[in-house]
Write a structure and sequence with these properties.
single chain, 562 residues, Immunoglobulin-like, 3 domains, 6-stranded mixed β-sheet, 9% helix, disordered N terminus, EC 1.10.3.2, CuRO_3_LCC, metal-binding
């Protein structure tokens, strides 16, 4: 199994980019990038196809910044599809215009047009990522964001000798947009992916993939920081490296209390930084990623692999595979997530809201709409509190800022219309799901607790929810129905993990808390692209505060027209 020298150039590129970045002056800088959205033929799994890329690269270029920097990314769209880019996990304080989700904070960038995303990196450091936020284009339009700490501020863990990006994704043989269109016309889920990838490459367990294998060369005795991103569209993934433990030190660009694990679980939209020591017998070891799914739902269960290779070891040595958890290992998933805790140090405190001004309870459900032209006469839909979200024709933030009436309502309910045994026997009846563009209005600087409750409407399933414009604290989680009397007593209000994307367990619930101190319109949705397309999404309208720096900034002059 010979692997070509492609990994040397890739790793060198990352290190050269990082060294060049670190050599920048200490004061806050302006980082400028040009993103050209263009189609390029890319070959995987024995055949080539045209894909949408940034600058012809797959995955796309990495954004490097330091905490406190200003970043300007000019995006020019040369592809046939409308485009928007979301900077996943960046808080965009008062600056929703730079957030990126199409028809939420902006209208998309049309073919031949440009838009400059201009934002500050304030109070954040770590690994985040960017991706297309329209249609399913993020299947190939994605890349990493690396935010270094302020000059003179060390990592709160042993300094690694080197760093490496590990971006997990999915690959389809055919045009993804055509596959989605076909599924929608039939009223069925589109075909699942044909492979998973590590840094855009499926690895040698797939045909024609010896030269499409990511490899990372390491030196005995050195410590490496892996910045791991799950850019897959629809799959939570286990990740491990054969015979090597990992120490988790950060998730979603927030430091955690370190803990050692043989494998990690990472949902679409999430990032995880781990330290790994090259302390085993020099050889070649597989790194591997495979889906986690503990509901009776088909997934692409194929394993992507890369190679963790000690220097001086010939490519003829066969790598060993890691022992990944079973694909339905619920116990591992729950145990792993329970270990995630905020660092909660003097420099990086966990400012958990202890008093709650507004309590929200949202149920997650599936249903069916009548569709005479569909295969079964129905089309699957998804909802929060029995409302399947309808995307508007203009950006919600524009409608909010300019007081444009008739675009959305602000009566999204704080709780479901009818309580029921949410996780009991499967319910096939449609509970009269409503359709609408309905937002929840939140007072500025109020504290909010949101409980997300999975249900057995058609089926239970885990859901990774992402909230734009905010981090939040995951104060509690459990299996079964949330008990508003007993369960809050078990909350962790001392050092809960802080994130921007959280999994709601299959047949269970998750409780989060946050302070609504970022005015604007902020999207919340399941980060499984399949479910988002079915309507599993909503938005919060956070009101302006009364202070001079507590209202939405004016829109940029080059905001894309609707």
């Amino acid at each position: 199994m010979a692997i070509n020298g492609d990994f040397v150039s890739k790793t060198t590129l990352f290190l050269v980019g990082l060294i060049a970045f670190i050599s920048f002056p200490a004061e806050a800088a302006v980082r400028k990038y040009q993103f050209d959205i263009q189609v390029k033929n890319v070959s995987r799994l024995c055949h080539a196809k045209p894909i949408v890329t940034v600058n012809g690269r797959f995955p796309g270029p990495t954004i490097y910044a330091r905490e406190g920097d200003r970043v300007i990314v000019n995006v020019t769209n040369h592809a046939k599809y409308n485009m928007s880019i979301h900077w996943h996990g960046l808080k965009q304080y008062r600056n929703g215009w730079a957030d990126g989700p199409a028809y939420i904070t902006q209208c998309p960038i049309k073919t031949g047009n440009s838009y400059g995303y201009d934002f500050n990196v304030t109070g954040q450091r770590g690994t985040l990522w960017w991706h297309a936020h329209i249609l399913w284009l993020r299947a190939t339009v994605y890349g990493a964001i690396v935010i270094m700490p302020k000059q003179g501020m060390p990592y709160p863990f042993p300094k690694p000798n080197m760093e490496q990006l590990v971006v997990l994704g999915e690959w389809w043989h055919k045009d993804v947009e055509e596959i989605v269109k076909q599924g929608n016309n039939m009223g069925l889920p589109p075909n699942m992916s044909d492979a998973h990838t590590i840094n855009g490459k499926p690895g040698p367990l797939f045909p024609c993939s010896e030269k499409h294998t990511f490899a990372m060369e390491v030196e005995s005795g050195k410590t490496y920081l892996l910045r791991i991103i799950n850019a897959a569209l629809n799959d939570e993934l286990f990740f491990a490296i054969a015979s090597h433990n990992m120490t988790v030190v950060e998730v979603d660009a927030v430091y955690t209390k370190p803990f050692v694990t043989q494998a990690i679980l990472i949902a679409p939209g999430q990032t995880t930084n781990v330290l790994i020591q090259a302390n085993q017998s020099p050889g070649r070891y597989f790194m591997a990623a495979r889906p986690f799914m503990d509901a009776p739902i088909p997934v692409d269960n194929k394993t992507a692999t890369g190679i963790f290779q000690y220097n001086g070891i010939p490519n003829t040595v066969l790598p060993t595979l890691p022992q990944l958890p079973a694909s339905n290992d619920t116990d591992f998933a729950l145990s792993y997530n329970k270990k995630l805790k905020s660092l909660n140090s003097a420099n990086f405190p966990a400012n958990v809201p202890l008093k709650v001004d507004r309590k929200l309870f949202y149920t997650v459900g599936f249903g069916k709409d009548s569709c005479p032209t569909c295969v079964n006469g129905t089309r699957i839909l998804a909802s929060l509190n029995n409302i399947s979200f309808v995307m508007p024709k203009i950006g919600l933030l524009q409608a909010h800022y300019f007081n444009i009436s008739g675009v959305f309502r602000t009566d999204f309910p704080d709780k479901p219309p009818k309580p029921f045994n949410y996780t009991g026997a499967p319910l096939t009846a449609n509970l009269g799901t409503a359709h609408g563009t309905r937002l929840s209005k939140i007072a500025f600087n109020s504290t909010v607790e949101l409980v997300l409750q999975d249900t057995n409407l058609l089926t239970v399933e885990s859901h990774p929810f992402h909230l734009h414009g905010y981090n939040f604290f995951v104060v509690g989680t459990g299996i079964g129905n949330f008990d508003p009397v007993k369960d809050p007593a078990k909350y962790n209000l001392v050092d809960p993990v802080e994130r921007n994307t959280v999994g709601v367990p299959t047949g269970g619930w998750t409780a989060i808390r946050l302070r609504a101190d970022n005015p604007g319109v902020w999207f919340m949705h399941c980060h499984l692209e399949l479910h988002t397309g079915w309507g599993l999404k909503m938005a919060f309208e956070v009101e302006d505060g009364k202070g001079a720096d507590q209202s939405i900034l004016p829109p940029p002059k080059d905001l894309p027209p609707c």
